[in-house]
Amino acid sequence: MSGVHGLSEAQFATLSEKAIAAKEAAYCPYSKFRVGCALLCDDGTWVTGANVENASYPVGICAERTALVKAITEGKMKFKAIGVATDIVPPASPCGMCRQFIREFAELDMPVIMFDNDGNHVTMTLEQLLPVSFGPGQLPT
Ligand SMILES: O=c1ccn([C@H]2C[C@H](O)[C@@H](CO)O2)c(=O)[nH]1
Ligand SMILES: [Zn+2]
């Protein structure tokens, strides 16, 4: 496949647009740190999410897990890429909890594409972000 990180040029452009647009839905009155996430599902559909904070701070949820919970509960279980957008430079990367959450549902070579506020991006595979990871395959059947 031609294009960027295994995605077509059009898919990459849409991932960027959707992750950046998803920031608008953030509920982050405490941190004021908006995060948007877009998932490209393997059926070609898209799911987005944003961070949703809480007056009891630890109860808040990150954009990545919001998007994944939406997708999984819509029956979308496989993903080609995940895009994460923030308002900072250089781009933020998913927190440890989200890396493990993504690990449950993604191949280790799935690209995690992080967009900054200057129109630049950094791509890492899930395995690069979470090496020597623990996943469903390690549990006895
Ligand atoms: O990759 C990240 C990093 C942080 N946050 C959220 C959590 C919290 O609402 C705010 C500040 O940490 O940003 C995300 O959603 N994703
Ligand atoms: Zn997180």
TrEMBL record:
Keywords: Hydrolase, Metal-binding, Zinc. Residues 10-137 form the CMP/dCMP-type deaminase domain. The active site is at 64 (proton donor). Its cofactor is Zn(2+). It catalyses: 2'-deoxycytidine + H2O + H(+) = 2'-deoxyuridine + NH4(+); cytidine + H2O + H(+) = uridine + NH4(+). Its EC number is 3.5.4.5. GO terms for cellular component: cytosol. One of its GO terms (molecular function) is identical protein binding. Pfam families: dCMP_cyt_deam_1. One of its GO terms (biological process) is pyrimidine-containing compound metabolic process. Zn(2+) binds at residues 62, 95, 98. Gene3D superfamilies: Cytidine Deaminase, domain 2. Substrate binds at residues 51-57. Belongs to the cytidine and deoxycytidylate deaminase family. This enzyme scavenges exogenous and endogenous cytidine and 2'-deoxycytidine for UMP synthesis. This is Cytidine deaminase.
